[in-house]
Design a protein that fits this description.
This protein is an alpha+beta fold and 264 residues long. Helices cover 30% and strands 21% of the residues. Strands 1, 6, 7, 8, 9 and 10 form a 6-stranded mixed sheet that branches. Strands 3-2-4-5 form a 4-stranded mixed sheet, sandwiched between helices.
Length: 264
């Protein structure tokens, strides 16, 4: 059965459809926030941005809660704030689509530019922890936010083995520009959280093995070396992810059971 990844509020539809952020400075204005994001990218840190309209008691309390929650995460993250109507930050605000969002609002940006959290008015230590995602999950979120189909290819060494069926699907004209391959070591303890969310059992990975995730965060299926090109393509079709044509019948098809040969 095609299912949604249980990502506890992070990989929601609105979040996953966001483009990953690169430099978005408004011409003629110096963006302090963009400078902070650039520094975070260089140092490999997550940036928690508290957006607000007024520096009132609610904003100050929200900022303090975020600051306190981040104490448990050491050097993994930095905290900053920005006025949502500041002309210098307009490009970032528009890219995030938050100009009319409830304030205060915490937006979490990963070092690679992926948005890993959007928390309006309320933030807790658990929400903060959920937004500091494992490395491979962070990479996948960026690709998904760029509307890519992501095959997470499992490996027990530093060499990434890609199932032949996945390689073949990647060469099909309708998919060649829409597929990203992301490698992940199944024995990396830092990725344990992502294992759970992909419903992955690492001890069952023997040889080439890939998990397919589609925007906005749909778990399409698990595919090993025996999965054929036709089986993988059929799973993509049934998930309504075969193309960007809104008139395609598959984009309106109900979710259905995955094809034989997929591994769940």
């Amino acid at each position: 059965m095609i299912s949604r990844l249980p990502l506890k509020g992070i990989l929601t539809a609105c979040l996953m459809c966001l483009p990953s952020l690169v430099s978005a400075q408004q011409p003629g204005f110096a963006s302090t926030l963009q400078s902070t994001l650039d520094q975070s990218a260089q140092s490999g840190k997550f940036t928690f941005v508290v957006f607000h309209r007024d520096n009132n008691a609610a904003t100050r309390d929200f900022y303090q809660q975020t600051q306190t929650g981040l104490l448990a995460h050491g050097e993994k993250a930095v905290l900053t704030s920005a006025k949502v109507d500041d002309p210098a930050e307009r490009a970032l605000v528009e890219k995030l689509g938050i100009s009319r969002a409830p304030m205060p609002l915490a937006v979490v940006l990963a070092p690679n530019g992926a948005v890993t959290g959007l928390f309006p008015r309320t933030i807790t230590p658990d929400l903060i922890a959920s937004a500091i995602v494992p490395p491979t999950m962070m990479q996948c979120m960026k690709e998904l936010q760029n509307q890519k189909l992501v095959f997470v290819c499992m490996t027990k060494t530093d060499r990434i083995d890609v199932p032949e069926g996945v390689r073949a699907v990647q060469q099909l004209p309708q998919y060649k520009d829409r597929i990203s391959l992301v490698g992940m070591r199944v024995d990396d303890p830092a990725e344990a959280r992502f294992h759970q969310q992909m419903k992955l059992e690492p001890n069952k990975v023997n040889g080439p093995y890939a998990v397919l995730i589609a925007p906005p965060g749909a778990l399409i299926g698990h595919f090993d070396a025996s999965a054929s090109t036709e089986q993988i393509a059929a799973a993509i079709h049934k998930a309504g992810q075969c193309c960007n044509d809104e008139n395609c019948k598959h984009n309106h098809a109900p979710q259905a059971s995955g094809p034989a040969g997929s591994r769940r």
